[in-house]
Specification:
132 residues, mainly alpha, 77% helix
Length: 132
């Protein structure tokens, strides 16, 4: 495993930890309110379930190959961004921090998935061909 791949996995794991802690904070806040998660409309359950989806994708992204990691990190980013903006006045900042980690991990995974760290990318092949 290359250094770039390891850093991509680390970024995915950090994003997972931050997003997971944010979901736990949300559940703790909802439980501390009168009615808690046992409210009759069930709306907090839906939000908690929605918040858990990118956490699962990030956890999986930390252990899969680079191309699948790129896909999972991209999906998590597409969910974390709007979720962080919607919840900006409560737990949204945690999701936005996790989004930053996910973007960093995705950029690193893209470099690993398409050979930028091994010198076999098409760009480097083109540069070598023009120098000879």
């Amino acid at each position: 495993m290359t250094l770039i791949s390891a850093l991509s996995r680390l970024a995915a794991a950090c994003a997972c930890l931050v997003a997971g802690a944010t979901v736990l904070a949300y559940v703790a806040v909802i439980n501390s309110e009168p009615g808690g998660l046992g409210q009759s409309d069930g709306q907090p359950y839906g939000w908690a379930a929605l918040m858990s989806v990118p956490v699962l994708a990030l956890a999986l992204a930390a252990v899969v190959p680079a191309r699948m990691r790129l896909l999972l990190l991209g999906f998590a980013g597409l969910v974390l961004g709007p979720l962080g903006l919607i919840a900006i006045f409560s737990v949204g900042l945690g999701f936005l921090v996790a989004l930053v980690f996910a973007v960093v991990g995705a950029v690193l995974a893209a470099g690993t998935a398409f050979g930028a760290d091994s010198g076999t990318s098409r760009v480097s092949d083109g540069l070598h061909a023009t120098r000879h």
